[in-house]
Amino acid sequence: MMIACVIRYEIDPFQKDDFRKYAENWAEIVPRCGGHLLGYFLPYEGTNNIAWGLIAFDGLASYETYKRQLRADPEARENFTLAQTKRLILREERNFVELVDGTFNLISTLK
After folding, report:
1. Phi, psi of 98 (to 5 degrees)
2. Which of 55, 58, 60, 103 sits at a 20 to 30 Å CA gap from 67?
3. Rg of the chain's alpha carbons, rounded to an integer?
4. In this structure, is residue 45 part of a structural domain?
5. Which residues of the chain have pLDDT under 70?
6. Total structural domains in the chain?
7. What CATH number should be reported for the domain holding residue 27?
């Protein structure tokens, strides 16, 4: 069963570019630590202070392994420190959702 961790960030909208860099840093870190990075998403239109991160795992055991790897990874610790030092993230919420089979990563068929 594939699960995804959906992270909702309340960010400082005046530091959106710094949050972008923070998110880009995870592109190398997350896969190296065992997560399947689905993506990070910045506010585009509408609310200007909410961002999202989505990371998938084969199950909760994979997530637990990922957390251990993340804590031991120097670049991950550095990225967390960046966010804390600059106060990029004002609030963070994590939810775990289960993937509905046959609905993941479907490409548009519109021509």
Report:
1. -100, 135
2. 103
3. 15
4. yes
5. none
6. 1
7. 3.30.70.100
Structure tokens at 89: 């993230």
Which pLDDT score is estimated for 102? 87
Question: Which pair of tokens denotes residue 105?
Answer: 């990563």
pLDDT at residue 111, as a whole number: 83
The beta strands (E) that lie in 1-111 are given as: 3-11, 36-41, 50-57, 89-98
**14 in a domain, yes or no?**
yes
What per-residue confidence (pLDDT) applies to 45? 93
The two structure tokens encoding residue 40: 């990070």
Strand ranges inside 35-75, DSSP E: 36-41, 50-57
Contacts of 56-64 with C-beta under 8 Å, sequence gap 24+, read 56/2, 56/3, 56/4, 56/5, 56/99, 57/2, 57/3, 57/4, 57/5, 58/1, 58/2, 59/1, 59/2, 59/3, 60/3, 60/96, 62/34, 63/3, 63/5, 63/96
